[in-house]
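WARN no homologs supplied; continuing
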Amino acid sequence: MPKNKLFKSQNYSLKNYSFYFFTHFIFQNALKFHFEIFHFNLYAAQNINLQMTLEQQLHLQS
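OK structure emitted
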């Protein structure tokens, strides 16, 4: 009987440990992906604004 209790407690801690790693990697990758998209959109918006200002300057010069 005590051996089963010990096995159950070890099995339970192993499940919690694997669940922690599983959620940790999922959230880590999700946040990384979110920030990559955010920075890419920010960079693209800056490029569009820069392109528009350069086009306006070219139109003013000509």
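The radius of gyration is 27 Å.
OK
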